[in-house]
Every structure is written in structure tokens, then in C-alpha cells.
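QA checklist item 7 of 12: single-chain prediction sanity check.
[x] sequence parsed
[x] length recorded as 97
[x] structure emitted
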Amino acid sequence: MRVSFTAILLVAVIAIVLFGAKRLPELARSLGQSARILKSEAKAMRTDGADTPAPPAPAVADGGTARTIQSAPGASATARPVTEQSAGQSAPDTGAR
């Protein structure tokens, strides 16, 4: 796909009309900063799991499987362990109705 010079010029003129000549450098700077942050976070996510071995899963006495739930990706401070019931087992009755 080739983009002609006329199309690039048209997009630039529309951007100047919409945002104004004073705001365009600020918008370009913030867009570049966002791209750098995204690139560094993606790199950190790729290398994060490769360097450290996975922690062993906690043992569960009732036969369910344990897993950790995080509120946001990479937010280990808010992680909490949760046990899941095996297929065929029901949740314990709390008696509150």
C-alpha cells in the first residue's frame, strides 16, 4: 500500500486545522512518550516470566485447585490466593439465608 504525498499533506493540514499549530508539537511529544512507555512495559512483561521460576502452587486439602487472582496484570501487591472446587463438588453451605 502506497501513501501519496498529497494524502500526507492533506492529513497534516487537517491536523493543523483541528488542533492548531501550537498544540501539535505537544501532542507529538506525548504520543512519543506513550509509545516509549508501552514499548518498555511490553519488554518488561516478556522478560518478567523468563528470569524467575514460577512459584509452587499452594496445597489445598479439600481436593480443589488453588490459583492466584490479581486485580490488574502485574499487580502482585493485590494478589490473593483462591481455591476452586473440583467438578462435582459444591460450595459449602454457609447457612445464611
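[x] summary fact logged: The chain has two helices and two strands.
[ ] second reviewer sign-off
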